[in-house]
């Protein structure tokens, strides 16, 4: 990798403080809840369980909180960091769904749904971050 590419890669690093992680968790959770509630109301679903809301918060916290992994390996290539971040984070979320199955009955497509929902949100946030940093340059 050339020195310029390494500098560009370093400039795209995610370097968040604990305070910023907590703020980002709150913002993403709020946006996800508003979007989900609006969609549910549009399709005629007028209730949401407290468990579902708490699970959404847990998934958001795992996803955003794990961004701190990026700070642990600052010299790794960005693509490796995204892979390192996504794989254990998705594993933790699937594990959370598995544990929740001991307390509630899961939808037959629960694992598939959380996989696709988390992956889409992950890709959107990653794209916003990457393109936002590139536009600032």
Topology:
Blueprint: H1 3-11, H2 18-42, H3 50-65, H4 69-72, H5 78-100, H6 110-136
Q: Evaluate the radius of gyration.
A: 17 Å
Largest sheet: none
Q: Please tally the helical runs, counting DSSP H or I stretches of 4 or more residues.
A: 6
- The secondary-structure class comes to mainly alpha
Oligomer category = single chain
Low-confidence sequence ranges: none
Number of strands: 0
What letter string, H or E per element, gives the SSE order? HHHHHH
Helix proportion of residues, in percent? over 70%
Shape: globular
Percentage of residues in DSSP E strands: under 5%
Terminal CA distance = 20 Å
If you average the pLDDT, what whole number results?
Answer: 82
Number of domains: 1
Commentary on this structure:
- This protein is mainly α and 137 residues long.
- 76% of the residues lie in helices and 0% in strands.
- The protein is built from 6 helices and no strands.
- It has helices spanning 3-11, 18-42, 50-65, 69-72, 78-100, 110-136.
- The longest helix has 27 residues, at 110-136.
Q: What attributes characterize this protein structure?
A:
globular, 137 residues, single chain, mainly alpha, 0% strand
Q: What's the gist of this structure?
A:
The chain is mainly alpha-helical and 137 residues long. It has helices spanning 3-11, 18-42, 50-65, 69-72, 78-100, 110-136. It has one domain (3-136).
């Amino acid at each position: 990798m050339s020195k310029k590419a390494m500098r560009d890669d370093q400039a795209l690093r995610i370097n968040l403080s604990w305070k910023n992680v907590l703020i980002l968790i709150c913002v993403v959770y709020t946006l996800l809840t508003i979007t989900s509630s609006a969609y549910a109301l549009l399709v005629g679903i007028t209730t949401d369980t407290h468990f579902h809301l708490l699970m959404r918060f847990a998934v958001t916290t795992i996803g955003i909180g794990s961004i701190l992994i990026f700070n642990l390996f600052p010299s790794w290539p960005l693509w490796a960091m995204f892979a390192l971040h996504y794989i254990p984070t998705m594993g933790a979320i699937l594990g959370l769904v598995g544990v929740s199955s001991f307390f509630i009955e899961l939808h037959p497509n629960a694992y598939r749904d959380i996989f696709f929902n988390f992956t889409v949100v992950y890709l959107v946030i990653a794209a916003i971050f990457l393109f936002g940093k590139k536009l600032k340059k």
